[in-house]
Amino acid sequence: MEFFDRLTEEGADSVCTTGGAVRGMADEEFAGKVVSDCLREMLANPDSEKAGLFKEEDRDELIFHLFKLLCLGGAISQPDDQVSPYLDTTKLLYKDAVSVYRCAKTREIKAGARAYVVDSTASGLFPNPGSPHNFCLVVVNPLLRQATIIYQPFLSFW
After folding, report:
1. How many other C-beta atoms can be found within 10 angstroms of the C-beta atom of residue 155?
2. Looking at the Swiss-Prot or TrEMBL record, what is one Pfam family this protein matches (predicted)?
3. Rounded distance, CA 85 to CA 8, Å?
4. 40-78: b or e for each residue (b if 16 or more CB lie within 10 Å)?
5. What is the pLDDT along the chain (158 residues), one digit of tens a residue?
6. Residue pair 70/89 in contact by the 8 Å Cβ criterion
7. How far apart are CA 125 and CA 141, in angstroms?
């Protein structure tokens, strides 16, 4: 997946080795989430030195949201040392969530679904409304009359 190739590019700012191993680091906490590697630090810390690997418009993409959800996990997640399981699962989730079709008039390939990030703190959707690690995504496919909801509230385990 070309979108994530920048994770394994060589250099001082690389998050993973060229072989796909996630680079480790000393434990740090970000809003109740303890991270111990460069990949999760880049995703959990908006002020990370490595946050610049993905531009703001890249971070708005559905595939990035799915990848971030899988990598950060829940409060007591057990992270993997390799990036490939996250990339493989992200690809599967993305393919399952987004359907494409060919426009009959223009013969263009278009996405048949729209994704919406729900971050309302007023509705009581999340038990810890101030956490930046809360996640709710709704993928609506009007052609199939289908909505897929991915919901993960974050409560710090410690």
Report:
1. 13
2. CFAP300
3. 14
4. bbbbbbeebebeebbeeeeeeebbbbbbbbbbbbebeee
5. 789 999 988 776 789 998 899 999 999 998 888 899 999 999 999 898 888 889 999 999 999 999 999 999 887 888 999 999 999 999 999 998 888 888 888 989 888 889 999 987 667 888 888 888 889 999 999 888 999 999 999 887 76
6. yes
7. 22
Record the tokens describing residue 70, joined without a space: 């899988």
Token digits of residue 97: 């969530």
- C-alpha distances (whole Å) from 113 to each of 14, 67, 76, 95, 103 are 33, 18, 32, 11, 14
Residue with tokens 């906490």: 29
Angle formed by the axes of helices 84-97 and 62-72, nearest 10°: 130
The amino acid sitting at 136 is C
Q: How many residues appear in the chain?
A: 158
